[in-house]
Amino acid sequence: MTSTIKTHRLSHQLRDRRNWLAYAAVMLAMAVIPPLAGDFGLYLGCVIICYSIAAIGLQVMVGVAGQLSLGHAAFMGIGAYATVLLQIRLGFHFLPAAAAGIALTVLFGLLMAQLIRLSGIYFKIATFGFGVIVYQALANWSSLTGGHTGLTGIPQIELFGMAVETRRQLFMVLLAVFAVAYALAVRMVQGRAGRAFAAIGQNEAAAASLGVNVSGYKVGVIVIGCGFAGLGGLFIPQLNGFVNPDNFTWIESLLLLIMISVGGLGSLAGAVMGAALLVVVPEYLRTFAEYKMLIFGMILIVSLTLMPKGLAGVATLALNKRAEGRRQ
Predict the structure, then answer these.
(1) Is 307 a member of any domain?
(2) Within a domain: residue 310?
(3) 155 vs 91, 145, 158, 164, 273, CA distance in Å?
């Protein structure tokens, strides 16, 4: 019995160590590669970070806790529009506007979390409907959101009296936010909440029999995932100089799901890898822009067929083989 407990603890320690090593590797790549690729590289780096933050939240919801959402991009839109509207209409500075935007996203996440009363496929369909409702509100409430035209004249970010004027400065801000958000996600997944999420994702009945508050943790993981989406979305208007509803359609929600699937379900680093792949590839295939969704579908099918554990699984396998080769 004692040896089993020790083995279990050692397994958890090794997993936790791998998570932090993956965190270090991802942060190093993010900090080094985009700046070396010039201004366009910095732009892509900013986009990757925005989608990575949202994808990490979705990964915790889907890959860890098993709560599939088909409307995740809607919460990116809520965070983006709330932040911008508070700045433009009420004259808020960026930080309080961003904090309020995330808070509003969390409240809407709490509202969607009430849908857990629905079971199975009905919950998934309801999340899709929630995303459609948010998109329609953003697209048709013209007096507030600007409708399909969207909003322009996005105010600059000001942090502690300093204006963020260049793309490099914006990238550095995003990198700092990403570092904190990613670290919090790793810490959460490794903690008590993360173990409860994983138990629910594997078997809800078994988790309940062990004393896990299944309903409470399901609400919690949905709220957390939506909050991460809002955090990722609120920087998109700052990056593009405008915001419109087309950034937050059901297609974007599908894209986020493809990101975590290609990267590897259950892996936070995989969510970032999937986001990077699906942001960069379309930029170099602009000639085939009209076939973008076809390309994404092919990437998903190839990934699930040849890499069932995603890019993160391939990376882990390669590192394990290299370690075994060194031992020999």
Answers:
(1) no
(2) no
(3) 10, 16, 9, 10, 31
Report the SS3 class of residue 154.
Answer: coil
Q: Which residue has the tokens 């959460």?
A: 188
pLDDT range class, residue 5, cuts 50, 70, 90: very low
Half-sphere exposure of 127 (CA within 13 A, CB side): 26
| Domain limits for position 112 | 40-252
Q: Tokens 């407990």, residue?
A: 5
Reading the block at residue 163, the tokens are 């204006």
Can you tell me the distance from the alpha carbon of 128 to that of 140, in angstroms, rounded to the nearest whole number?
Answer: 18
Gap between the Cα atoms of 288 and 91, Å rounded? 42
pLDDT in tens, 23-81: 999 999 999 999 999 899 999 999 999 999 999 999 999 999 999 999 999 999 999 99
User: By the 8 A CB rule, do 198 and 19 touch?
Assistant: no
CB 30 within 8 A of CB 178: yes
Task: Convert the pLDDT of each residue in 141-189 to its tens digit.
Answer: 999 999 999 999 899 898 887 888 899 999 999 999 999 999 999 999 9
- Render the burial of 180-198: b for 16+ CB within 10 Å, e for the rest: ebbeebbebbeeebbebbb
Tell me which of 299 and 139 has the higher pLDDT.
Answer: 139
Say if 64 falls within a structural domain.
Answer: yes
- What is the Cα–Cα distance from 118 to 238, expressed in whole angstroms? 37
| Cut 0.85: pTM above it | yes
Closest C-alpha to 62, from 237, 244, 256: 256
Closest CA to 151 of 247, 242, 241: 242
CA 176 to chain centre: 16
Give the total number of structural domains in the chain.
Answer: 1
